[in-house]
Amino acid sequence: MAAPGKCFLVSGPPGVGKTTLIIRVLESLKQSNPSLKVQGFYTREVREGAERIGFEVVTLDGRKGLLSSTKISSPESHRWPTVGRYRVDIASFESLAVPELQVKEDTDLFIIDEVGKMELFSSSFFPAVLRVLESNIPLLASVPIPKSGRDIPGVARLKNHPGASLYTLNTTNRDAMKEQIYSHLIDILQNH
Fold first, then answer.
1. Can you spell out the DSSP letters for 172-185?
2. Mind listing the pLDDT tens digit for each residue in 13-36?
3. Which of 86, 141, 143, 171 could, after both became Cys, cross-link 112 (CB 3.0–4.6 A)?
4. Dihedral through CA 55, CA 59, CA 62, CA 65, nearest 10?
5. E-assigned strands of 22-154?
6. Each residue of 107-139: b (16+ CB within 10 Å) or e?
7. Within its chain, how far is the Cα of 187 from the centroid?
């Protein structure tokens, strides 16, 4: 099992800045440690004008792929699972995100943004997340806030992991949370 305090989970309502916080922590870590080996991905909104039409997965080396969309209508897409009005492209997600979660000996940190309902439609995603947890390599991940008080089972498992610390963001505490997570990670990485 992971040593206590190596899994940092960022939660909060949609739009509060979870992805932004994770990217800012990563940028700060890379400034203080340019040779840092980081693996993983983050998700970001795809917009057409003011309208959000989906989400894409972005690897830390800049490759992009579709996660979900409201605009795609192909014969395959009608079989894709849906979350709200979004159709989830599991094949695209798996081809990009899952290889980023391969545990390698020289990896210093994993970033997984996010472990949410869309991502968990992939049958290979959560086992990969668990392998990262068991690897004892520090993990910075985001998880959705529970809807109607109940967590998605995979999210509940992460939160209940012995090495997990949960940081719940709101608009007033996010800068302080960024500093807190950054300083914890710096301590871990320097003693790694």
1. TTHHHHHHHHHHHH
2. 988 999 999 999 999 999 999 999
3. 141
4. -40
5. 38-48, 51-59, 64-69, 82-83, 86-88, 109-113, 139-142
6. bbbbbbbbbbbbbbbbeebbebbeebbebebbb
7. 21
